[in-house]
Amino acid sequence: MIIFRLIGESFRFAFDALRQNKLRTMLSLLGITIGIFTIITVFTAVDTLRDKLQASVDKLGSNTLFVQKWPWIFSDNFPWWKYVNRPEPSLRDYNGLKDRLELARGICFEVSTNNRTIKYRSNSVEGIGLNAASQEYNLTWNLEFQDGRYFTETEGRSGSPVCIVGAEVADGLFDGTDPVGKQVKIMGRRVTVVGVFKREGEDMMGMSQDKNVLIPLNFAKGIFDINNQRYNPQVTVRGKENVSLEDVESELKGMMRSIHRLQPGEEDDFSLNKTTMISNQLDLMFGMVNVAGWVIGGFSILVGGFGIANIMFVSVKERTNIIGIQKSLGAKNYFILLQFMFEAIALCIMGGALGLGLVYGITLLFTYGADIEIILYFKNIVLGIGISVIIGMISGFWPAFSASRLDPVEAIRS
């Protein structure tokens, strides 16, 4: 109970100091406010951007590998001359992996081309992405439909002229009418719509099916050369749920080397890309931004700490006779020490709360004013309060210690 009373009195003293010396106290708190505002703003923006990018990356699948010609991550000394002569993933690779891989849930061969136009009667949608894939596409990607269905086994094998369109494509072509069963024209061929992907909305990396069209691979063979590198051929492999990605990668690498007849010690002529490569780069990049936020905000907090120490020395000087009376009535040194420590912490929490309030205002401004969603996470609120408490403890210790060591007789006489 004594501790709670002590905390209550300390907060009362802090509010009294704020009320009696508003300008002086607000100027002292300005450094803490700016520092907390800077650090938490950087962390809030970074966390929001990081989560949006990670959500886009997660669409690729955490247990999915992509056999491609080029690696996703380049180093400073990137030997491009080695990669440029690599072969593109081919149907031969796909067929060899399909027959031999045991740890894969699904294996799919995919090609894609961009900036195509799709038409339905007098309506058309330009700039769509046309994807062609083997029948296992639904096993390697998480597909959701708002209308219709996926290709049947017969449609995939026979190369039927069918397609699945994105929600934005369906809106542009059919004006709200049911698109399933209607015939559209793409690359000079008439194709029947059998399904519509569920609307996903735009994301940070453009990983959305809203403006894509998917056709069976065997149908695409009659439209363009699916082995041509201009159509970005790749083999997508998703491992089984109870199998680790490392095991799937190890088996896939061995099978690809065998299919390409590479000798032991010979370098791979393919790349196995995975989402962890992107995630690690994101962690590295945003880690550097966080350090910059700490450095920039740290200087403001340092200045704010000196300001709090200064106002606490002034507060001790103003209340010297009160300290003397308290000690003459039996107050212990630790009581005086904690009293001023809690007052310094209370002042820093005020400054920190003001900084967090400004950050929250910025998030509301961007979310509702600029239609850019920014989230102030609870962990950043806790971090801001925690920094305020630590700065209050550090900046308030020496003034509080000097107050606790005052001689009661000399203090009353002052």
UniProtKB/TrEMBL annotation:
The lineage of its organism: Bacteria, Pseudomonadati, Bacteroidota, Sphingobacteriia, Sphingobacteriales. It is found in: Cell membrane. The chain crosses the membrane at residues 27-46, 291-313, 334-362, 374-398. One of its GO terms (cellular component) is plasma membrane. Pfam families: FtsX (PF02687), MacB_PCD (PF12704). Residues 295-408 form the ABC3 transporter permease C-terminal domain. GO terms for molecular function: transmembrane transporter activity. This is Putative ABC transport system permease protein. Keywords: Cell membrane, Membrane, Transmembrane, Transmembrane helix. Belongs to the ABC-4 integral membrane protein family. InterPro entries: ABC3_permease_C (IPR003838), MacB_PCD (IPR025857), Macrolide_Exporter_MacB (IPR050250). It is a multi-pass membrane protein. Residues 25-253 form the MacB-like periplasmic core domain.
